[in-house]
Every structure is written in C-alpha cells, then in structure tokens.
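2024-03-11 09:14:02 INFO worker-7 job=invfold-0412 stage=load source=structure_tokens
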C-alpha cells in the first residue's frame, strides 16, 4: 500500500503539474484497486508470522484458556518490538502506522495468539497522541462507550489496567489497580465489564480535539479487529484445507469431492474479499481518514460475518471430529464470535456507517447530475 513506489513508476521526472498528475494517478489506483505492500511491510508480515509460528502453537493457545492471556507470549512480543509497532520511534515504538497494525493483527488472528495486541496497539497510539509516555501497562479502549453509555464490555479488559473511553463530551481514561473479573465467554477471550464508577477517572481531552482523537481511535480499532478476524478466517480455511487433503475416504482424500472443494474455494474467496476491504479501509484511515469514514465499520461488519461463516464451514469439513473441543478447528470457531462482539453487531456498525454513506451517495448523485463520472 505504497504511494512512493507507484509514483516513481509513473513519474517522468518533470517538475510541476506533470508530477502532480502522476501523484493523482497513483492515489487513484491505490484508492480503488491496489492492495500491494511495501517490501518492508511484507518483511514485517513474514517476521510476525514466523515469530508466532514458533511462539504460539495450538498448545499455547489451549494452555491460555479459559482466560485467553499468555503473559510469557506478551513478554516475548514486547521484546520483539511487536507490541510497540504502531508507536512513533520517539515514543519508544517502531514507527509503524495503521497499515502495519493491520498486518500484525492479521497474524494475531491467524495464530489465535492469546494476547490483547489489537486493542493495546490502538489505545497506546491514542495515549501517545495526547503526549502520554508509554509504559509496561496493558491498555485498552471501550469502543462502544460513545453509543452505549454506562458499563462497557472491554476487549482485553480482563488484563488491562487502563481503558480509554468516551463519557458525555469528554475523552477519559479509566484506571484500576487490578483488572476486573473476566466476563464468561465460550471463546476464551479476555473480555471484562468496566464500570465508570470503579477506579480512577481522568479527563484526557475535551471539545473538538477529543472528538477527533476518539473517532480516529475507534476507526483504527475497527479496521484492526477486522484484520484479526480476516486472519482468523484465513487460519481456519488453512486448517480445513490441510485436513481435507489428509483425510482419506472412498479410496482418496476428501478434498477431491466437490462438496468439500467448492466449500473451500468459496471460503477462500470470502476471506480474500474481507482482506481487500480491510486493506482499503486501512489505507483510508492512515492517509485520508475524512474521505471514507464508513469503511472501518463496513470492514469489521463484513469480517465478523465472514469469520463466523467460514469457521462454521471449516468445522463441517472436519465432520463430526470438528465439533469436538479436541479439534484445533474448534479454537477458531469459538473465537470468531467472541472477537467480534466488543466492536458491536451488524446493526451498530451499519448505524455508524450510515451518515458517512449518505454523504457519499449525495456527493456521487451531484457528480452525476453535473455530467461527471463516478
């Protein structure tokens, strides 16, 4: 998702308007159909995938249940620089942006890593934007606190000691000496209810600046969570594919039967579509957040639906074994819903996207009326 690489390929070396035209063409392609990555971004994705492949096998995921948190994996991820990937270098991070967070989140989902990296990376960026120095404390945010005041079901809330939230007209930080008890859930996610009256409350920002910072953080959380869910779905399909190749029936692998192969192809296409929408949303959030503010909500709504549907079909590929807790595919199936829930269901996400979508459609209608093209 690079602007520079495409501009260099298109540019003529001339000054003035020809360079700007090349930039405009490059941006247009990036907006609509270019989901390619920098070499550095590909290296980041591959590095995180190798790290989690070694540090987070299925045994580690199971051992972290039911709390859904592995302190040793968190420590190793911090030492590897993954925890601070989205922070500026002067803040002790790796200097990455939303796209880099999305790439890490996808690998977290693919490995089902029992660490609250998505919410921590986003909340840390929010606090850094307010000039807060990072420390070793796990932080999270309450993504629905603006729409639903009161007690909040916080992602990573069972291990976080600080949570950013929207209360009234203020951006606040809730702090506790110890996290609250985990909210019971079949997905073994470290969810917990945070109540506004518990612990310490600090006002971080007010007014327009507070609203802008909060909107940015929620958008980043949605697109990063969508990426984690798309990665989860990708991991589920990979498990189902490997099982279908190895499982023998009627003299050959079950992958040769159309009922299996077509299911896997459909699932693979759904995952690829979800990933493309996530990458597009991430590009806009990082480069032009005001241009398409509805995309993070769309990306999360779609990824949540895809993850649950793909996981269910991957379970079916495994037959009766897939319904048992001993099957690794069950780890994906149970987490698909648990990871989706804190971000809001389809109705909430559609409501969040509706105003921006209405403005976009109005603008397109005006363009058509003026004789322009979409």
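2024-03-11 09:14:09 INFO worker-7 stage=emit residues=374
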């Amino acid at each position: 998702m690079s602007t520079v690489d495409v501009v260099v390929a298109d540019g003529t070396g001339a000054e003035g308007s020809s360079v700007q035209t090349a930039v405009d063409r490059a941006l247009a392609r990036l907006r609509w159909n270019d989901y390619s990555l920098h070499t550095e971004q590909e290296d980041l994705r591959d590095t995180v995938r190798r790290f989690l492949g070694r540090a987070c096998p299925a045994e580690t995921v199971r051992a972290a249940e039911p709390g859904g948190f592995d302190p040793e994996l968190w420590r190793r991820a911090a030492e590897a620089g993954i925890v601070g990937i989205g922070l500026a270098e002067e803040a002790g991070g790796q200097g990455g942006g939303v796209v880099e967070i999305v790439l890490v989140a996808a690998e977290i989902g693919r490995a089902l890593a029992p660490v609250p990296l998505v919410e921590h990376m986003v909340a840390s960026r929010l606090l850094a934007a307010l000039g807060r120095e990072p420390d070793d404390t796990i932080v999270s945010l309450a993504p629905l606190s603006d729409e639903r005041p009161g007690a909040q079901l916080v992602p990573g809330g069972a291990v976080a000691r600080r949570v950013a939230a929207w209360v009234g007209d203020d951006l606040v930080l809730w702090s506790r000496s110890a996290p609250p008890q985990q909210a019971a859930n079949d997905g073994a996610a470290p969810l917990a209810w945070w109540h506004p009256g518990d612990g310490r409350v600090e006002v971080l920002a007010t007014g327009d600046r507070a609203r802008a910072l909060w909107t940015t953080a929620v958008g980043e959380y949605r697109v990063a969570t969508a990426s984690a869910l798309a990665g989860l779905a990708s991991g589920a399909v990979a498990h189902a594919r490997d099982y279908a190749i190895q499982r023998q029936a009627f003299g050959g692998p079950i992958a040769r039967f159309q009922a299996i192969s077509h299911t896997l192809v459909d699932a693979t296409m759904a995952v690829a579509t979800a990933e493309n929408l996530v990458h597009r949303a991430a590009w806009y959030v990082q480069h032009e957040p005001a241009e398409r503010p509805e995309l993070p909500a769309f990306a999360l709504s779609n990824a949540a639906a895809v993850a649950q549907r793909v996981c269910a079909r991957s379970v079916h590929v495994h037959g009766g074994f897939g319904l048992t807790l001993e099957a690794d595919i069950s780890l994906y199936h149970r987490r698909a819903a648990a990871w989706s829930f804190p971000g809001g269901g389809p109705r909430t996400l559609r409501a969040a996207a509706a105003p921006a979508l209405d403005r976009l459609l109005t603008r397109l209608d005006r363009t058509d009326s003026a004789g322009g093209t979409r």
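2024-03-11 09:14:09 INFO worker-7 stage=report msg="Residues 212-369 form a domain with the Butyryl-CoA Dehydrogenase, subunit A; domain 3 fold (CATH 1.20.140.10)."
2024-03-11 09:14:10 INFO worker-7 job finished
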